[in-house]
Amino acid sequence: MTAPGLHAQDVLVLVGLAAPASLLALLGGASLLNRPFGERTEGLLARWAMTISFASCAVALAAYAATGATARVVSFGSTLAAQGRGPAIDLLVDGMSLGFAALTTAVAGVVAAFSNRYLHREPGYNRYFVLFAAFVTGMLLVVLAGSIEVLFAGWEILGLSSALLVAFFHERAAPVRNALRVFAVYRVSDAAMLTAAVLAHHFSGSGSLFLLFGLSGGAGGGVLSPEQAWIIGLLIVIAVAGKCALLPFSGWLPRAMEGPTPSSAVYYGALSIHAGCFLLLRAAPLLERSASLSVLVGAAGVATAFYATLAARVQADVKTALALASLSQVGIIIVEIALGLHLLAMLHLVGHVCFRLLQFLSAPNLLHDFHELQNAVGAHFRPTGGHLERLLPERTRLWLYRFALERGYLDAILDRVVTAPFLRIARAADRVDRGICRLVSPTPAHDDRSGDGASRG
Amino acid sequence: MVELPLPWLAGLLAWPAVVVVASRLRLETERLRRLAVVSAAGLLGASIALAFAVHTGDTFPGGPRGGSGFADGAPLFRLDALSEPLLAFAALLWLVTVAVTPRASLNRAGIGRTALATAATLATFLTEQPLLLAGLWIASIWILLAGLAEPEHHAARRVAAVHLGLSAVLFVAGAMLVSLAPRAGGGARSAGTLLIVAAVLIRNGSLPVHSWVPEVFERGRLGPAALFSAPQVGAYATAVLIVPHASDAVLRTVALLALGTCVYGAALALVQDDARRACGYLFLSQSALVMAGLDCTSGDALAGGLCLWLSSGVAFAGLARCLLVVEARRGRLSLARLNGGYEWMPLLAASFLLLGLACTGFPGTFGYVATELLVDGAVTKFPLVGFSVIVAGALTGLAVLRMYFALFCGRHEPSPHLQLVPRERIVFTALATILLVFGLAPQPLVESRRLAAEQLLLRRAEATEEPGPPSPFLPDAAHQQRDDQENGDQPVGHEDREQVAVGRLALVGVDPGRAEEEHRPAHRGSHEIGPAVPQRQQGEDRHREQGDRGEVLKGTSGLKAVHAREPVRIHEAADGRGHHGHAAVADEDVQQPDLADPPRRPLFQERGVDTHGDERRGQ
């Protein structure tokens, strides 16, 4: 059935997407013109944009539920308009996308209001809200994507804004170093997603998620052969593993806690870390077609949940502990998806997003809240988690403690297996390049790199 | 292709010529810079006006319509779909160069050289004559070497002179052989093309002759090196001299070298401690990506390469200028530490990041569309190696972010002198805006590049005596123009071109009606999703159609198979399933064409062929 023009529901969705995008254009444009708005104006704009976006998505969701409408693809054509080819700009409007869009904008609205006070008079206030607007736009693109190109665009925007917010306090070296690490893992995830997009086009001639994932209720991935579905499914699982910090990519998550608390809350407590779960729910028909893929996803979820719960128990930093606790729940949600318990996974996801957001946002008051609770109860809380000490022998406990403290040695393994060989080979190649030039021109060049004076351009 | 009348040519070259002359006078440097900025802006306006005039009117106001031949009798200076945006591109690079060059690096001779270099680049983009291109090739190299005359740059100059001198010798020899080809035969053409390929590989810094590029960036002067590199004259030579004439094996080799270079450059950019050297490796990677697109000879890859040429050229030139502006204020910076200063130059930092991300094909920038097309085409041509474009993109993104962090993040003592002056602000804002605007509304530029790609493939088909590339989705201007001339017709309108496109669809066995339905122009709006089975059928239809399209985009090789009467094998190879309806059409109904003079007009008559094919498919 083809209905010409846009429905009222589609318009609402577009408004929901346009509000944060406009905020990004407005704040980013003002920054580019070197005329940033004042703090008061920016805060006001951000709150209004998020309110409008949430209202639009919520009304669209209510209308969708009330009218019992069917899923719709809102198409804006493609890059090569005259040929109807190139990256397709499609949005998929159904209950799932509308529900997650409403959740996203609600969380974003809460965090925007919180950030407005939390970052008061912070030098990077403007930068934070530009990146925050980029994040919400990217997240909504992921949630509403109807084609794999739109999904990829949102995915990349999420990754970049995340890395830049990790490096928000960029006058210190550690946040910058960690941001680069986070971005490196995101690039692996992005590369997997782009590869999936390209292969999807080659296999099916279409980037439509509806066709690729077989979302019409029939056999999943209707346009793909089982082998093709497996390959695309595997690439999507890799992309999800990078973004959700599933094993073996979990090492970046504690490093990402360098950012300001509101951004940690919205990224690693609430939305970004669940973006992969949402994508897996979308691609569930692909998983259903392949038992091996489901097993792989389930195994990654179980391993991640165990790893995260173990590592979370020994962290001294509350944000890191919360992030790892969040990861353990994400692992369980992934297992639920792999088992085909989609409704449970969705409910778990929504509940976890709200609960963890609250925990993250109240993390700066943790000690204060803790004392108030103890005062109210009138006694000290008893320590929990002692069962491990009773059940395990001391040597095992010590080993596990060290393992958890080092977060599974994941970073060390990554450094040894990937980073060090890469650097060794690249630097050797660089030495060869320099050597060739010295052969051609043996006279040592005058080194004009020293000194702080302006060198001749 | 339209011949460029002398008044228009003079009108273009007059802008840099004025600056060259003025640089010989005793003008004060800042005044000369203002003159150069005005001239560059004038040239940019004239280039855009010229492109619009040709694009909309198909001819020059007051100028004759030029010859259509590509070999003998071809005009000395001409303008075609390939060159239309390149003039504005060259003008923009000149404008950026003269507007942003720090005062400390500015001198009259340097401004004169930038104008000369721009004039050479403009002339290069306006001609296809091999010997003239060779002369301009030498001129641009001479201008670069002249910019490295100071003693501290002698080592870099020597390295550049050895490599680029060899490149010039090879190019001149190749151009002479190619020019002699009509008399000396196909052997001379092949040998000449090979020599030109070698020259281009050296100039572009392709593996294994790449080491001079980072050396010149690091130990030479960044400004002249960027102005020499950013227009990617080597890519132009590839497009007009190599793509139409080189054998499949040569193009395949060059494409594979380019794919290797793009990963190599990105990987080495990531480990550099010197910002300039990292910039050099980034350029290697970007120019290799463009070359990979040009040499893949698939419609998508070629269009992607042409888009990336513009996108990465502008982005890279801006990136290099950002670095120069930072260095002008703070000296040479190491990437091994955080240099700080963001607070004093947030616009420069944001521009650096945006320009760098445009190089990596980040969504929202023009590079995204270009990279998507390029990856798609590269993977079509090289199913495994093609993915190296994705690897290169990932590494480039990391390298850019690392450079951004090192150059702008960290602690820095308050230093108001770091702030940008107005002309720098305007230029960097404009560059970022251009990349974002074309990223959000890429259609006009992408379609222009797609048309240029089609024409290049057609030239290749003509030069290799094969039928034209059977791309059914674009009107083929050159094709149509030749038909007009054969029949003495007036230039055809849009409807007639659509007829040609439909005829070509018929030739390759695609149902024009279905293709029109499924590739209807930019379907906008929304539609409800139907039940599972019809949707799946729709998917299968799409899949089948894509198989057709994939095979169509195989271009010349697909049709070569039709001539060779081996359609079934080729169709099976296209998507692993085979479309026997097409095979039967090709095998039984398409007349064996005369390879020496491939027929063009029968395209219309062969619509009937498709009807049979359709009927057979329907049975």
Low-confidence stretches of chain B: 61-71, 466-524, 530-619
Spatial shape of chain A: globular
Q: What is the mean predicted local confidence, pLDDT of chain A?
A: 87
Which H/E pattern describes the elements of chain A?
HHEEHHHHHHHHHHHHHHHHH
Please give the count of helices of chain B.
27
Number of helices of chain A: 19
What oligomeric state best describes the polypeptide chains here? heterodimer
Distance between the termini of chain A: 62 Å
Largest interface, counted by CB within 8 Å of the partner chain's CB: A-B, 102 and 113 residues
Question: pLDDT average of chain B, as an integer?
Answer: 75
- How many β-strand stretches of chain B? 3
The figure for the number of domains of chain A is: 2
The biggest beta sheet of chain A reads:
2 strands, antiparallel
Which strand order spans the largest sheet of chain A, edge to edge or round the barrel? 1-2
Overall morphology of chain B: globular
Q: What structural class do the secondary elements of chain B suggest? A: mainly alpha
Query: Cα-atom Rg of chain A, whole angstroms?
Result: 24 Å
| β-sheet strand percentage of chain B | under 5%
Kindly describe this structure:
Chain A is mainly α. Chain A contains 19 helices and 2 strands. Chain A has 2 domains: 1-144; 166-365, no CATH class. The longest helix of chain A has 32 residues, at 173-204. Residues 445-457 of chain A have low confidence and may be disordered. In chain B, helix 13 (299-330) runs antiparallel to helix 17 (422-440), helix 14 (346-360) packs antiparallel against helix 16 and helix 22 (532-553) packs across helix 24 (567-575). A two-stranded antiparallel sheet of chain B has the order 1-2. With 619 residues, chain B is mainly alpha-helical. Chain B has helices spanning 6-24, 29-57, 84-100, 108-125, 130-146, 154-184, 186-204, 212-219, 222-229, 233-242, 248-270, 275-295, 299-330, 346-360, 366-381, 388-408, 422-440, 443-463, 477-487, 494-507, 512-518, 532-553, 556-563, 567-575, 580-589, 602-605, 607-618; strands at 2-3, 78-79, 524-528. Chain B is globular. Chains A and B meet through helix 1, strand 1, strand 2, helix 5 and helix 6 of A and helix 6, helix 8, helix 11, helix 13 and helix 14 of B.
